[in-house]
């Protein structure tokens, strides 16, 4: 199973992703062994010139990923597989990019745009601008989850508690 997009409303951002059975239940019930998430790092826009692979490899002193959203997934048991420098492409004319960003592009080349995780590439000769949104592929091992049947036959999903650490 693949998680392509998760948008968390601000009021729910402190909820642990591992405590959200609605996220895991379909995959576990289907008997899947892993869930793959394409994760957009929330703090990467502060470091737009760094390659995503370098950024994804940054660790804090406790060994967890530097980025808060990557860290949420890591705490939920996910591991980073690799960076994906071009998960999504947004292309437009130079005029469109000027309208979208409020910037002027006097020469061809890369431009840092507020909020973008990587530079926008502008080519005046072809009247094209392109932005490649980088993400990080992470894999959640679902083997630690199990399904229990309650007396009213409702299914509940929860982390495996019988294994030793």
Keywords:
165 residues; Aminopeptidase; disordered C terminus
How would you sum up this structure, described in words?
The chain is of the alpha+beta class and 165 residues long. The protein has a domain at 2-85 and 134-159: Aminopeptidase (3-Layer(aba) Sandwich). Helix content is 19%, strand content 33%. It has four helices and eight strands; from the N terminus they run βαβααβαβββββ. The strands form two sheets. Strands 1, 2, 3, 4, 5 and 6 form a six-stranded mixed sheet that branches. A two-stranded antiparallel ribbon has the order 7-8. The longest helix has 9 residues, at 21-29. The radius of gyration is 20 Å and the shape is elongated. The two termini are 26 Å apart. The model is unreliable at 149-156 and 161-165 (pLDDT under 50).
Uncertain residue segments: 149-156, 161-165
**Rg calc:** 20 Å
The third-level CATH topology of the domain at 2-85 and 134-159 is Aminopeptidase
Instruction: Characterize the largest beta sheet: strand count, sense, and whether it forms a barrel.
Output: 6 strands, mixed
Name the CATH superfamily classification of the domain at 2-85 and 134-159. Gcn5-related N-acetyltransferase (GNAT)
Based on the coordinates given, report the CATH architecture of the domain at 2-85 and 134-159: 3-Layer(aba) Sandwich
Query: What's the CATH C level of the domain at 2-85 and 134-159?
Result: Alpha Beta
Number of strands: 8
Sum this structure up briefly.
This protein has helices at residues 21-29, 52-57, 68-75, 94-101; strands at residues 2-3, 34-39, 78-92, 109-111, 120-123, 128-141, 145-149, 155-159. By secondary structure, the protein is α+β, with helices and mostly antiparallel strands.
